[in-house]
Amino acid sequence: MPMAPVLFRRLALACAVMLPVIAAPLRAQPVSLDSIRIDDPALVYAVTLTNATTLIGRITLVSADSVRVVSSAMTATVARREVRSVRAYPATALHDGVLWPENPHATRLLFAPTAIPLRRGEGYVADFWIFFASAATGITDRFTLGAGMSLFPLDNFTDNLFYALPKYTVISQPRLKVALGALMASVPWSSNDDGGRRRQSLGILYGVATTGSTESNLTLGAGWGYVGGTLANKPVITVGGQHRATKRIALISENWFIPFDNGGGGFVSYGVRMLGEKIAVDLALGSPVGADTFYFPGIPLLGFAFKF
What is the DSSP letter of 122? Predict the structure, then answer.
């Protein structure tokens, strides 16, 4: 069996094995009353009582016998013995008194990466257009490692595409992140002179910057393609973003500009991302763009990701 697909399959298997082993805790963390930072503007709390009622707001008082929860709509003081559990959320998750789950797939647009990394121990499995599967995990809070493959039903399954997706976030600020990464693929190539098959390495080396939050952001990237040891002298430019419109819906777009010697072409796309606490489903339309090429409203694009 060719060495390249074996290596890429082992990398994909390693990612899949690591996900449950170092699975990260949920963003909403259970906390004890004694550890709460009183009146912290960066946090809100969901206080669940023994009668199954949940109070959402800032905690401004914790005493030996009572707890006070304050929101824009109410102030409630309850007996400490009636508190069953407390969970902490970032204040940005609260919208008009309703807690929105964190965007489970902020590290990618439809296909291209953002500069946002997975946190250490987080991971996801994803599928794009049915035939392209991938998995990734956060090795550290800055280094994300992924791998994937195509799933075409070929006579020889090893003739599929195999690829690795390393990404390192070199700048990580609350509203700006910059990352360097690569898509390193192994693809079946033309037959050798002796009639055998060989594989070719190709991919893209990129830099990407993302401004905004995990919920609404804009991404700009530049990548240089390569085939074997030959690197392109002009970069592919990507521009995209996502905007959280409601608790369950985000608007998303990913656009590519590809330079050619006689001009340029590209690809544009737009759609929605449906959000759950751990799953994201992308429904989008896209079209290649050229001198005489554009399909409206576009080719359907479907993808999903499940986060661990």
Answer: -
